[in-house]
Amino acid sequence: MDKFLIEFNKATNDKFSYLRTEDVSMEENKNNNTVSLHLTFIVPYDIYNDEEKFNNDIKAEIENGVQSIVPPNVVCHIKYAKVKIIPEVIQRYVTDYIREHYFKLFNGKYVAKDIAVTISNDIVSITIPVDETIYNYCIQKDVAVAINNYLDSKYSAKNFIKFKSVKMPTTEEFKLHNAAKYVDDGIVNIKRGEPVIGGYIVDPPIYISRYTKAIQEVTVCGYIMSIERKEAKSGKIYYVFDIKDPTNAIMHCLYFYRKNQKKSTIEKLQPGQDIIVQGDIVESTFNGALSFFARSISTCIIDVKGTQDKIHFMKKQIKKAVVPEPKPYEDEAANAVYTLLDQAPYICPLLREREFTVFDLETTGGNFKGQIPKIIEIGAVRIKGGQIVSTFETLVDPEEPISKVSIDLTHIFDVMVEESPIIRDAIGPFLKYARDSILVGQNAIRFDVPIVKHYAEEYGYDFDYKTLDTLTMAKEAKLGLTSNSLESLCNRFNVVNQTPHRALSDALATAKVFIELANLMKL
User: Considering the chain, what is the average pLDDT of its residues?
Assistant: First the structure.
C-alpha cells in the first residue's frame, strides 16, 4: 500500500481502508500558485452500489480526509471508480503484472488462462502453475509477495498466492499431441478515456455477442451508430443509442436521467464516437428483445484491429473441421472385372506387388520463393493390384486470403474453404490414408512432396515415404513428346481429366497415367 493511503487511513481512522488509488497526477497552476491533485479512488463493487455505505456524505468525508493530509495550496479533484472482484478480473491483474515485471522469466513457462482463482467472502486464493525450471526461483525471490502487493493496490481483500510446479510441454509436444488449448477471454482491447456519466469504469468490456439473455452488471463497448434524445409521456427525458463492437454485434441502449444529473454531459456524445458502457441487460416483456439500461458511460478508443486479430486467431486455433473419409472408387471402364475367358490387360510386377497413393495438391502459390505455400486442397487415390480402389479429397483452410492467381487457376474461393479443416487437421488424415504405400505424383519430387514433408514434420508426423514421379517416368520412357506435362501425358494415353487444377481430378488423371507408364515400362 502506498504512503498516501497510509496517511489517508490514519487521518480517517481506517474508516475507508477499502479504498485503493489509481490514476494519481499533479498539475502546477503558476497563475495562482496552486497545485491540482487529480485522484481516482477505486471502490469495491458491493460498497459502491450501496447508497448507505457510499453516498454524497461519505464522499465528502473522504474528500475532507484527503484535504487534511495535503498542503493548503493543493486543490483536490477526486473521482471514484468501482471494481468487481471476480476471477476473470483477478486473473487479468496477475497476468498483467507478470508480463510487466517478469516477461523474460515467465515467457513460455506458464499459461495465463491456467491461473486458478477462487473467492470466498473477502478471501482470494490464487494458484499459478509455472514450469518446474522456474518454480524454485519464484519461491526464493518472493514473487508471490510482489504480486500480492500489486493486487493489494487494486482491491480490498486478503490474497493467498501460491505457485504450483508443473512440467510444461515442449513446442514439439504441443505440435504432436495438439495439447495447447486456446480460450478467447472475450475482452475488447481499449484505451480508456474520461467518464461522461457516472464514475470511471474499471471492468473490462466484453464482446456484446457473449450476451444472449438478461443479466445485471455488464460492461460493453462500441462505436455509436445512432443516438437520439426522447421524452416520455411523463416528461422524463431519456436517450436511445445503438453501439456496435468489433465482433460486429449491436447493442440497443437506453439512458434515463437521474435526479440532479447534469443534462449536458451525454449531449456531447456523437455518432461514430467510441464509448464503454456499464449497466444491466433487460429482456422486454412485450417481444423478448434485449435492451441495455446504462448507468455509467465513458469515452474510450477501441483497438478494433487488435481485437479482431485476436478473435481470428482464437477461431483458427479452436477450429477442427471434420476431414471427409476416403470413398470407394467406382469406374467400370477403369476397373473392369475379367473372367478366365477374357483377355485381361497386362499388369506389371510393380503394380501387382505394391500399393500406391497418387496425390495432388492445390496451393496458394506455385513456387518456393520466400516460403512454403499453403495447401488449399488435397486429392489422392489408392492403387492396389494395378487398379484404383478408393479416393480421398478435402479442401483446406489456408488461414489467409487465397490469391487471385490461385483463384483464377483453381476456381477455389475463400468462402469455399471457410468450413474446411486447417492444414494442422488435414495433414494427419492424408498421411493415414497414404500409410504403407508408395507416393506418386506429377512433378511431385520438386513440388508436392516437399510441401507435404514440411507440414508433416511441422505437426509432428514422420515422413519417410518412397516417391515416384510421373514426370521423371515419362522422360525415362522416351515417349517422344514435346512436353511431359500432365495434359500432354493425358492426351498420349487417352486419359480424360474432368476438372484440371482441382486436386482429386488431377490425382485421378495422374493415377491412370501412372498405371499406363508402369505397364509400358514393364516395371
Answer: 84
